Amino acid sequence: MSELREAAMRSKAWPFEEARRVLKRYEKAPPAKGHVLFETGYGPSGLPHIGTFGEVARTTMVRRAFEIISDIPTRLVCFSDDMDGMRKIPDNVPNPELLREHLQRPLTSVPDPFGEHESFGHHNNAMLRRFLDTFGFEYEFISATDFYRSGRFDEILLRACERYDAIMEIMLASLREERQKTYSCFLPIHPETGRVLYVPIRHVDAREGTITFDDEDGREWTLPVTGGHVKLQWKPDFGARWAALDVDFEMYGKDHSTNTPIYDGICAVLGGRPPEHFTYELFLDEKGEKISKSKGNGLTIDEWLTYAATESLSYFMYQKPKTAKRLWWDVIPKAVDEYHQSLKAFPEQDLDAKLANPVWHIHNGRPPASDMVVSFAMLLNLASVAGARDKAGLWGFIRRYAPGASPETHPQLDEAAEFAVRYFRDFVAPTRVFRAPNEKERAALEDLRARLAAWEGGRDAEALQAMVYAVGRDHGFEPMRDWFTALYEVLLGASQGPRFGGFIALYGVEETIALIDRGLAGRLAA
Question: Structurally, what CATH architecture does the domain formed by 3-283 represent?
Answer without folding.
Answer: 3-Layer(aba) Sandwich (3.40)
